[in-house]
């Protein structure tokens, strides 16, 4: 991914900023300029999510592309944030502990890099709450 | 709007076709369809080619022109040719474009082809190219592969409806059973539930044998106005419905993660257009890119209640000539899944079935057949209904 392509989404990636529609009350992640529910009647403002939520569904990936090979096996999940928006994220715990319904919170992590000398991408992943 | 029929159909062999290039296979399918229709290339006035990712797989774009060129329809004849892309639904969409072109009167003889050459890059490259069918910025960047995304559908389907790994495996076993009788199939081998369950885990709960393979292949059909179909053949296959629907690109934004609303919507539109219900359909070619996808499809298209697709599959209700024949061709699992070709290959199978020329995999008394082609994890769905009666 080129620098500008990654950089322009920094707010969403680093700080979990999305959108809140003042018309319908729905929350979206990442930032959307048009409310998919209200379209032109929508009134979108940026919103920083609390970063807490629960696992809706999950998987442990064993086979992947070169970019993620160092991480296998890794847990991947769809998390529903407490405000209602959902997103896809890695869960940075031991994969066997990851399960549907468990509570999670956001953490700042490395997402990837452009080879050995390229830029390193950072962003948000999630981890399980302490039980 | 004019009624439309298919008068020629051909699929190449599917598999790892090392000795053939993309242009070789698409020309092979196209010429086969033209011969089947008993027409000449000069009769064709419109071309569509469904292809997901020539750019990634063979570093070649501008496939419409390339295909027209190598079909001998570019220089001199200058036939318009358009490449159509909707990830794994590219083929179904190419067919739909051809149908719309003929129905509208813009074209009198259109060819719809689908083609993909996936084995010219390594496995990691294929995984990455396919991941582009999902949301690269908000799914792919987190390491979500395609099996990973469908695995999350499967995991939730299991939690909500009690679907089991055995039920998933039964889909692969049944499709291999059908594919053994399909000359073009990539895997003509028998499979057992135990073999599926013991195969390596790709993305829990999906084993490698729950996944459709990486394949090369092409397919093509000739589309003409129904009023003129008998000019070309005694056995035209009529298009009773052509429907398409969209949903969110990312799985996490769907209304319900275990329902492909695009399939539901395209299915409903197709039934309405044809004036039919699921009970009228004799066979359906569904998009089983993963075993869970077939279970979702037979539920979403109304053949089984939501949550009942797994038990029905294990009980054999989807086998050839059972309650509803699902994937008589062997589906994507056994026939192979050259992504852009699949949607057209499904139509070719429907033609063979409805002409009664499917041999050992023939659906008895087939009158209405449906095809269901999905792009990504369900962001695009294309559904067609065919019949041998006008």
Automatic annotation (TrEMBL), chain A:
<dbReference type="Pfam" id="PF01796">
    <property type="entry name" value="OB_ChsH2_C"/>
</dbReference>
<protein>
    <recommendedName>
        <fullName>Transcriptional regulator</fullName>
    </recommendedName>
</protein>
<dbReference type="InterPro" id="IPR052513">
    <property type="entry name" value="Thioester_dehydratase-like"/>
</dbReference>
<dbReference type="InterPro" id="IPR002878">
    <property type="entry name" value="ChsH2_C"/>
</dbReference>
<feature type="domain" description="ChsH2 C-terminal OB-fold">
    <location>
        <begin position="49"/>
        <end position="109"/>
    </location>
</feature>
<dbReference type="InterPro" id="IPR012340">
    <property type="entry name" value="NA-bd_OB-fold"/>
</dbReference>
<dbReference type="InterPro" id="IPR022002">
    <property type="entry name" value="ChsH2_Znr"/>
</dbReference>
<dbReference type="Pfam" id="PF12172">
    <property type="entry name" value="zf-ChsH2"/>
</dbReference>
<feature type="domain" description="ChsH2 rubredoxin-like zinc ribbon">
    <location>
        <begin position="13"/>
        <end position="44"/>
    </location>
</feature>
UniProtKB/TrEMBL annotation, chain B:
<dbReference type="Pfam" id="PF22691">
    <property type="entry name" value="Thiolase_C_1"/>
</dbReference>
<dbReference type="InterPro" id="IPR002155">
    <property type="entry name" value="Thiolase"/>
</dbReference>
<dbReference type="InterPro" id="IPR055140">
    <property type="entry name" value="Thiolase_C_2"/>
</dbReference>
<keyword id="KW-0808">Transferase</keyword>
<keyword id="KW-0414">Isoprene biosynthesis</keyword>
<dbReference type="Pfam" id="PF00108">
    <property type="entry name" value="Thiolase_N"/>
</dbReference>
<dbReference type="InterPro" id="IPR020616">
    <property type="entry name" value="Thiolase_N"/>
</dbReference>
<dbReference type="GO" id="GO:0016747">
    <property type="term" value="F:acyltransferase activity, transferring groups other than amino-acyl groups"/>
</dbReference>
<feature type="domain" description="Thiolase C-terminal">
    <location>
        <begin position="243"/>
        <end position="388"/>
    </location>
</feature>
<feature type="domain" description="Thiolase N-terminal">
    <location>
        <begin position="4"/>
        <end position="226"/>
    </location>
</feature>
<dbReference type="GO" id="GO:0008299">
    <property type="term" value="P:isoprenoid biosynthetic process"/>
</dbReference>
<dbReference type="InterPro" id="IPR016039">
    <property type="entry name" value="Thiolase-like"/>
</dbReference>
<protein>
    <submittedName>
        <fullName>Acetyl-CoA C-acetyltransferase</fullName>
    </submittedName>
</protein>
């Amino acid at each position: 991914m080129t620098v500008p392509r990654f950089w322009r989404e920094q707010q969403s990636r680093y700080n979990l900023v999305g959108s809140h529609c003042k018309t319908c009350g729905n929350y979206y992640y990442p930032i959307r300029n048009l409310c998919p529910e209200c379209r032109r009647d929508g009134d979108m403002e940026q919103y920083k999510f609390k970063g807490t939520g629960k696992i809706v569904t999950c998987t442990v990936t064993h086979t992947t592309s070169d970019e993620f090979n160092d991480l296998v096996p890794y847990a991947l999940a769809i998390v529903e944030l407490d405000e209602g928006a959902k997103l896809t994220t890695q869960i940075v715990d031991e994969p066997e502990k990851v399960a549907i319904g468990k509570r999670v919170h956001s953490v700042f992590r490395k997402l990837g890099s452009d080879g050995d000398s390229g830029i390193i991408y950072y962003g948000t992943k999630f981890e399980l709450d302490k039980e | 709007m004019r009624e439309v029929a298919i008068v020629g159909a051909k699929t190449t062999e599917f598999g790892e076709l090392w000795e053939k290039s993309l242009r070789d296979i698409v020309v092979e399918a196209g010429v086969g369809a033209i011969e089947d229709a008993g027409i000449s290339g000069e009769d064709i006035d419109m071309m569509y080619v469904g292809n997901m990712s020539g750019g990634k797989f063979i570093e070649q774009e501008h496939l419409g022109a390339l295909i027209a060129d190598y079909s001998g329809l570019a220089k001199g004849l200058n036939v318009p040719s358009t490449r159509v892309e909707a990830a794994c639904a590219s083929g179904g969409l190419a067919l739909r474009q051809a149908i719309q072109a003929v129905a509208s009167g813009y074209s009198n003889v259109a060819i719809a082809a689908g083609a993909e050459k996936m084995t010219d890059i390594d496995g990691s490259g294929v995984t990455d190219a396919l991941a582009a069918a999902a949301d690269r910025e908000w799914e792919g960047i987190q390491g979500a592969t395609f099996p990973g995304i469908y695995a999350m559908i499967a995991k939730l389907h299991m939690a909500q409806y009690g679907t089991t790994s055995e039920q998933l495996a039964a889909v692969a076993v049944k499709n291999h059973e059908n594919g053994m009788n399909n000359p073009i199939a990539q895997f003509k081998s028998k499979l057992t539930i135990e073999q599926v369950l013991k195969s390596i885990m790709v993305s829990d709960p999906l084993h490698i044998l729950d996944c459709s393979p990486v394949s090369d292949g092409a397919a093509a059909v000739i589309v003409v106005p129904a009023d003129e179909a008998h000019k070309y053949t005694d056995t035209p296959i009529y298009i009773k419905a052509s429907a398409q629907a969209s949903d969110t690109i990312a799985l996490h934004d769907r209304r319900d993660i275990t329902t492909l609303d695009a399939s539901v919507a395209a299915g409903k539109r197709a039934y309405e257009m044809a004036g039919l219900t699921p009970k009228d359909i004799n066979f359906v070619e569904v998009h089983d890119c993963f075993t869970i996808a077939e279970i979702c499809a037979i539920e979403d298209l109304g053949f089984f209640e939501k949550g009942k697709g797994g038990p029905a599959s294990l009980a054999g209700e989807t086998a050839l000539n059972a309650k509803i024949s699902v994937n008589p061709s062997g589906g994507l699992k056994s026939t192979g899944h050259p992504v852009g070709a699949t949607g057209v290959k499904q139509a070719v199978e429907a033609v063979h079935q409805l002409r009664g020329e499917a041999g050992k995999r023939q659906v008895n008394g087939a009158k209405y057949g449906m095809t269901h082609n999905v792009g990504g994890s369900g962001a695009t769905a294309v559904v067609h209904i065919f019949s041998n009666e006008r």
